[in-house]
Write a structure and sequence with these properties.
By secondary structure, the protein is α+β, with helices and mostly antiparallel strands. It has helices spanning 2-12, 90-116, 123-133, 201-206, 217-221, and strands spanning 14-26, 31-43, 139-146, 149-159, 164-166, 179-183, 188-192, 229-236, 240-241, 246-249, 252-258, 266-270. The longest helix has 27 residues, at 90-116.
């Protein structure tokens, strides 16, 4: 049971991009500049819940069917048969199912708190994380708007003498990097953007029941596949090598990305051999 809960919690501790624009500039001398403007979304806390659902209280009214005026009604099919899902006999059955799911939610939240040190399902904790991020280099603006959504402005400069990964969120040890910049020993820089393309979606969707059931906007709003929409651009003062980007020029490559993008943006950039790699 503990392993099941842990697996569920791990799948829940996942941050995804929403709508965004991102730019990476890199120079042959190893200097780089990275920008990300847009949303970071927590899943599945952002799926229409906001605060922990464990605070809700069961009501028998949840198990019945109502007409447009909110009046309890008996629903019948064309043959006059009562819809069995809308009868009082289903109250007990639905209550047991509700209690089971609620218990799983409470256990998942407890596991997340143990793993992260805060409750990412709770709005108050998310507001606190937004304020905390503002005390770290690069985070120019962070605002938590609710429903698991953070609006961020991130801008940082650095050198490729050490690995760079975005984002890093205090306390969160389990994540899919949106962008990583890593320098190899042969002076070639490897650029990958797995998180921008939603590489964590298969794990999240495999452990959830939030797949959109229709083209209805409300249904799509609860489906992480429809969250991601952005552009990732890399620019340099010499040529990049990439097999999956849209080249606007030898020194510039861009990717248009959404939740259905299958490829991970990747590129390589050869530095001039003028700066040593920092010992690790």
């Amino acid at each position: 049971m503990a392993l099941v809960i842990a697996a569920t919690a791990l799948s829940s501790c996942l941050y995804l991009p929403g709508r965004y624009e991102s730019l990476l500039r890199i120079s042959r001398n190893g200097q780089f500049e990275f920008q990300y403007s847009g949303q970071i979304r927590f899943a599945p806390a952002g799926v229409g819940k906001g605060n922990a659902s464990g605070d809700e209280t069961w009501s028998d009214m949840m198990a019945y069917c109502y007409d447009e005026k909110g009046q309890l009604q008996t629903v019948r099919d064309k043959a006059g048969r009562i819809d069995p899902s809308c009868t009082p006999e289903k109250v007990s059955e639905r209550k047991l199912e509700w209690e089971r799911k609620h218990q799983e939610q409470r256990e998942e939240e407890a596991m997340a708190v143990n793993l992260l040190g805060f409750n990412p399902f709770n709005d108050a904790d998310n507001h606190a994380i937004a304020e905390k991020l503002m005390r770290y280099d690069g985070w120019k603006q962070v605002r938590y708007r609710g429903r698991g959504i953070f609006d961020v402005e991130y801008h940082i400069t650095g050198k490729t003498d050490r690995d760079f990964i975005f984002p890093t969120i205090p306390g969160v040890q389990i994540s899919y990097p949106f962008v990583s910049v890593r320098r190899r020993t042969d002076n070639e820089v490897e650029i990958k953007a797995p998180g921008l393309a939603g590489s964590g979606l298969p794990i999240l969707l495999r452990n959830s029941d939030i797949i959109a059931q229709s083209d209805d906007p409300e249904s799509k709003a609860s489906d992480p596949r429809y969250w991601i929409a952005g552009t990732f651009v890399i620019e340099g003062d010499k040529r990049f090598e990439s097999e999956n980007g849209e080249a606007a020029g030898l020194n510039r490559i861009q990717w248009q990305i959404d939740g259905t993008t299958a490829m991970v943006p990747e590129a390589e950039f050869l530095l001039d051999d003028i700066i040593p790699t920092t010992a690790r």
